[in-house]
Amino acid sequence: MDGTVRTDAVEQAEPGSVIPGAGPANRPGERATVRLRDVGPDDPPRYAPEWLELREGADAVARAGDLLDPLRIRLANLPGRSGVVIHDLGCGTGSMGRWLAPRLDGPQHWILHDRDPYLLHFAAVASPRAAADGSRVTVETRRGDVARLTPDALVGASLVTASALLDVLTREEVEALVTACVGAGCPALLTLSVAGRVELTPADPMDEEIADAFNAHQRRDGLLGPDAVTVTCEAFAAHGATVRVHPSAWRLGADEAALTAEWLRGWVGAAVEERPELKDRADRYLRDRLEACAAGELSVLVHHSDLLALARPTGGTR
Asked: Which string of DSSP letters, residue by residue, matches 168-229?
């Protein structure tokens, strides 16, 4: 199918070649299933690929495996299925597919959504080749911002997935996502949403002050930040879906020093952007924390939550 990246196409691609479906263009006559937010043509991507690569290992360890059994049961009971169609919203470099596809049985077709064509290309090339039982996994990409799903975005979907997405959405955007999932009658596995709590060992008097400022920064411009999981659970429940939430914390120690250092810079930087009066003290705090991190003397618990919503199957799921 034109615009679909299949496993054999990935295997045969030369380094640096463009794989069909991994670019920004829609197929002739195709309606976009997601719309870009109102941003300029030079608006930078939301996440740098280097950051996504750095966090992938910690994400994989943190995700709540306890949610997979109820998900497998739901997928196995879908009527008339010879495989599943999975929409990965805000796919980034494709880490969710690399984690989940080998944990599910049966043929899978992944539809990867992101606004960054470079990330889409990377995700397609690095996608898994096989499911847990050796069944084939194929991939298709669609460019756009997942914050604004159109009504036909999830026609035929078996599952919606996302990582670190809910907290950068507004209440209205979450409601649109929930409505689309419920309308398609498909479950949603939404992982690694920030919970607004961080524990650093050894503790420092500024920890709570930085955390409060960071959480306020996360809520800028109407974004949900650490309120995202609660709002999403309420929205799914209001539509009659069954919702399960499990913790999925990063546990960062000496072996994750590079990730911890980069996380610290971003965490403190966002706090200072929100409250510039913290800058002098925050600079000293960050310097001390980075020194402890480099010496292997710092551990960090960054709390996240994973959410599985099981909407009632409908005629929209085929």
From this structure: GSBHHHHHHHHHHHHHHT--EEEEEEEEEEEEEES--TTHHHHHHHHHHHHTGGGB-GGGHH
